[in-house]
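3.2 Worked example (two chains)
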Amino acid sequence: MRNLFSLIAITLFLSFSTGVILAQPGQGRGMNKNKAANLLKLTDEQKEKIETLRANHMKEVIDIKSDLQKAMLDKKEIVRKGNIDRKGFVAVQEKISELTKKMSLKKANHQMDVYALFTAEQKEIAAKHPFMFQGQKHKMQEGRPMCPNCAQKGMHRRGMPTQCKPVVVPVK
């Protein structure tokens, strides 16, 4: 009985540790940030200023994102209730559009604030590598068709196939 317990414990340990050992490092945003910093040969002072700008930018964007999520929940609530009111539905959609635009402008201003820190040589390098100022797409979403019902690409959250219902606004 002891030997059986020991064998099971060793097997479990090896199966979990093998996954950790063989795991590959991710290709997340941190990798791209470091790649860009190495490519541009940023000084320590520039890196520090960029990190300060990034932290301030994220603090501003977090508030906008939370407002955006609340507006999206409001839209879902309007649809869920059934008898959809055109005025309320359109008002929430306008708020969502406004918040999305605000986030895009914050991002563009942040990118230009970072760009202003570059030397002339670094600006030339950045011009040759436009990926530094373009949004990163997830590899699984590239080339996927848009969902006709909700304008999301391909699969929805949690890997579930598209099962969304079309939103139909009744005409009054």
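3.2.1 Second chain
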Amino acid sequence: MDYQALSLPEKWILKGIPFIFCIGSLLHFCFDLSKGNLLIGLIAPVNQSVWEHLKMLPLPVIGWWALYYIVKGMAYGLDKDIWFTCTLIALVTSLITVPLLYYFYTQAFGIKLMWIDILIFLFTIAVGQSLALYCYRESVNIPAVWSIAAFIGLIVIFIIFTFAPPKIPLFLDHTTGQYGIPRSKTSINIFPENIIYSKKSILSRRLRQ
């Protein structure tokens, strides 16, 4: 494939590979850096399970594609059905490929290495974006509303399984033997600590009044 011969939207799709990889990698650390902020836990991994690591994909993938459509969609006459269908293809392809490759190499060879996990993450993003590019060039499409409904459905599933994960290996954090949010982080605050008042402080304010 001649990169120079690609249209600007097609180049944007491929440029998304390093962007999605970098943003997704940053999401890996966000929950711990936020000291267990519950809102952050809705979009970022809360433990080391394979399932939770899949949260590193939806926000960067959807964001990358949506950003271009919002900024350049009208200028380049992008078909919303085709564009968001390809977004869905990129996302679902990566979500499926990650666990398939992870379980293949860990179970077949009995090893688990961080650098291989990182390469798998990058590779699956490349596969997803490349397949999406092919589908874009072939004008594969379903109604945009279906694709958006699928995005919402996936996000809802991730949120539900953050709090109520099925007790199967896909959701197990093998470093702690726990599922879902670690017990050591059950005192999670939805809002930053500086805007949360304890019951004691509220009571003292009322007494002074």
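3.3 Remarks
Residues 3-208 form one domain.
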